[in-house]
Design goal:
The complex is a heterodimer. Chain A has one domain. Chain A contains 6 helices and no strands. Chain A has helices at residues 4-21, 39-43, 50-68, 73-91, 106-134, 140-164. Chain A is globular and about 45 Å long. Chain B folds into 2 domains: 44-165 and 253-266, Thrombin, subunit H (Beta Barrel); 169-249, Rod shape-determining protein MreC, domain 2 (Thrombin, subunit H). Chain B contains 6 helices and 12 strands. In chain B, 30% of the residues are buried. The chains are: A mainly alpha, B alpha+beta. Chain A binds chain B through residues 21, 24-25, 27, 30-33, 50-51, 54-55, 57-58, 61-62, 65-73, 75-76, 79-80, 83, 86, 132-134, 139, 142, and chain B through 12-14, 16-17, 20-21, 23-28, 30-31, 37, 39-40, 43, 47, 50-51, 54, 58, 114, 116-121, 123, 125, 159, 187-191, 250.
């Protein structure tokens, strides 16, 4: 349990740097930009208190904003996603609840569980982010396409990370 | 009172959520205008330093092609040099060539250190700031054409609003007929922008060149913007023209910042005459 803190600090650093320096520079056809940094919120322990969850979401989003010149944009989307997380976890909880000492990962709860959990939160985050960024409904379907393609790509990276980096 | 405290405690998660969202959304809407980009003055210095490192590596990869383009530009400029011309009239004592010309534009070379093309409001950061003579509202171009306008400056870095930002409009002109309109980006394709306000009687052809008009005191006249890709009449009397931008925003590295030395004089004059 004591190892949780340094591990999460390291994780938030790596994810922010990876997002800012690698993923923000990847631009497929001007449409698709993966936002993998939200993996940090996905992987927080089940016992994380609500206030900490929201605060971490805010800080995480704001640090991405600093580098992307988009004040508040990522912060609001990430806080929104952090707000949804406890409800999604409740909805997908196993019959006996979550086992203490386990984390929300493929390793503990299987591919199907993690995929559903991650997909809903990634989609929620990307919807919020892209529609807030464009802030009008006239290009609804073009934005929709950006949301879908970017979500697929983010989700792909999130799932891959489960097998290559966070195996345990 | 006790009920209020109990209510807050019971719903602290939702209330905290609302609090964070309000803070974040305030940030978003306060900084929607590109003039307010100076909020990032503090963080610009830090992220500018780190981005410089990343971009110097990426520049290295593009070195060959950049060299090629610079050589081409050098050749073109050399052709325009006064030494490449022969005086066509009989020299006379009355005309002193040097006195007839006054420098209007100064060029400051800069390197791009961060850039994006896939957002609705894209920004570019460059590695020159007030120390190098850069001020807000200067024009930024590259050898291919127009890039954007300087919005915020710190001591060593500046942010530029590129054409690929929905907040920017550039006064532009058809090279062959001289009619002018206003160019802006619709947020869809980083290679294309829209030119509006051209009257419907103008004769347009695909491939016609669009340049800056020089009406804004920011851009000099005749800087390349792009070529006409397609056009249609919308809203009755005006064309909407789709322009293929000549600048490749996906791989910007070297840019020139243009200082209009007469800008202050012109703005002062326009202010005193009540021109708006």
């Amino acid at each position: 349990m004591i190892k949780v803190l340094p591990r999460n600090i390291l994780r938030i650093l790596i994810l922010v740097l990876f997002q800012v320096f690698v993923l923000n520079n990847i631009q497929f056809s001007g449409f698709v930009n993966p936002y993998m940094y939200i993996l940090f919120i996905l992987l927080l322990p089940f016992e994380t208190p609500g206030w900490l969850l929201l605060s971490l979401g805010f800080v995480l989003g704001l640090s991405i904003d600093l580098f992307a010149n988009t004040p508040g944009l990522h912060a609001s989307a990430t806080v929104f996603m952090a707000f949804l997380r406890p409800m999604i976890l409740d909805y997908f909880a196993p019959r006996d609840g979550y086992v203490p000492g386990t984390f929300p990962r493929v390793f503990y709860y299987g591919f199907g569980w993690f995929f559903q959990y991650a997909a809903i939160l990634v989609l929620a985050h990307h919807f919020f982010l892209f529609y807030l960024e464009i802030f009008r409904l006239s290009d609804f379907f073009i934005t929709f396409r950006r949301v879908i393609f970017s979500s697929i790509f983010t989700l792909f990276l999130v799932m891959i990370s489960q097998y290559f980096i966070y195996r345990r | 009172m006790r009920n209020l405290i109990r209510f807050i405690l019971n719903n602290h998660f939702f209330i905290l959520f609302l609090f964070f969202e309000i803070v974040a959304l305030t940030l978003v809407f306060q900084n929607n205008n590109y003039q307010k980009a100076f909020v990032f003055n503090i963080s610009r210095n830090i992220s500018g330093y780190i981005n410089t490192r990343i971009f110097s590596f990426r520049q290295y990869l593009d070195l060959h092609e950049t060299n090629q383009k610079l050589v081409e530009e050098n050749i073109r400029l050399r052709k325009d040099l006064i030494s490449s011309y022969k005086l066509n009239i009989r020299p006379s004592a009355n005309v002193e060539f040097d006195a007839a010309w006054v420098r209007q534009y100064d060029f400051i070379p800069a390197k791009v250190i961060s850039n994006s093309v896939n957002k609705q409001s894209n920004f570019i950061s460059i590695d020159k700031g007030t120390r190098h003579g850069i001020r807000p509202d200067m024009a930024v171009i590259t050898y291919e054409g127009v890039v954007g306008i300087v919005s915020g400056v710190s001591e060593n870095f500046s942010t530029v609003i590129p054409v690929l930002n929905r907040d920017l409009r550039i006064s532009s002109r058809l090279k062959n007929t001289g009619y002018f309109g206003s160019l802006h980006w619709d947020g869809k394709d980083p290679g294309r922008a829209l030119l509006q306000d051209l009257p419907h009687h103008v004769n347009l052809n695909a491939g016609d060149t669009i340049t800056t008009s020089g009406y804004s005191a920011i851009f000099p006249e005749g800087i390349m913007i792009g070529t006409i890709a397609a056009f249609e009449i919308t809203g009755g009397n005006f064309y909407t023209v789709i322009v293929d931008l000549s600048t490749n925003f996906r791989r910007l590295s070297h840019v020139y910042v243009i200082d209009n030395l007469f800008r202050d004089e012109l703005l002062e004059l326009e202010k005193t005459t009540g021109y708006d």
